[in-house]
Amino acid sequence: MSKRDTEFIFETGALKFVKRSWQQFFSIPVQNVSEHTFRIMWLALLISRMEFFGRNKKCNISEEKIMKMVLVHDIAESRMGDTNLVSRRYCKQDEQLAMNDILDKTQFKKDFLSIYKEFNERKSWEAKIVKDADNLDVDIECEELKSRGAEIPKEWTKFRKKVCQDFYTQSARLLSKKVKQADPNDWHQFGRNRFNSGDWKK
């Protein structure tokens, strides 16, 4: 174990202070990078199971690789910050340099640099699934914002529809539709709680 391993752990923890930059468009706080990564993990696993395991397709999908890919796909933002669809047109970033430096002399360098490269190539199903989850999480958060009274601009809604059309998997497209039909609060309003099964039930 090297000093870089402990530095790496502290650096990944700092991602909770990196804000997703698209909040600039709505003036409403959105997820930080750590929160975004956590939900992508579950989304990617759900998409993979819907797309392959739930359809009895023959595949060699690795859920371990999916989870590793999710973990690594945005960690460069600890050094570069997050860019949005506008700022990306003006910023020149060396993401590969950031990744090399972040993982340098750590236990994770060899396999995670390879997985990061695979994610950016978008050739494997794991990479496509993770990218779909990455994009889908934005739509889910938009639904959460709307449930709290936020207004999402019409042009943004059109843009998000275009993104959904470019999903790699049928399962991501289906999930996108289901998310827009769902109420983000149903899980606690209709799940077991004090009103429907506890001491507040009348």
From TrEMBL:
Gene3D superfamilies registered for this protein in UniProt: Hypothetical protein af1432
Q: What is its EC number?
A: 3.1.3.89
What does it catalyze?
Answer: a 2'-deoxyribonucleoside 5'-phosphate + H2O = a 2'-deoxyribonucleoside + phosphate
**UniProt keyword annotations, A-Z:** Hydrolase, Metal-binding
Q: Name one GO cellular component term.
A: cytoplasm
Domain named HD/PDEase: which ranges?
29-148
- Which cofactors does this gene product need? Co(2+); Mn(2+)
> Which portions of this protein are annotated as coiled-coil regions?
none
Q: Select a single GO molecular function from the record's annotations and give it.
A: 5'-deoxynucleotidase activity
State the species of origin.
Answer: Candidatus Berkelbacteria bacterium CG10_big_fil_rev_8_21_14_0_10_41_12
Question: What SMART domains does UniProt report for this protein, alphabetically?
Answer: HDc
Give a Pfam family name: HD_3
> Can you say what this protein is called?
5'-deoxynucleotidase
- Alphabetical list of PANTHER family matching this protein: 5'-DEOXYNUCLEOTIDASE HDDC2
Q: What class of enzyme is it?
A: hydrolase
Give the organism's phylogenetic lineage.
Answer: Bacteria, Candidatus Berkelbacteria
Q: How does it assemble?
A: Homodimer.
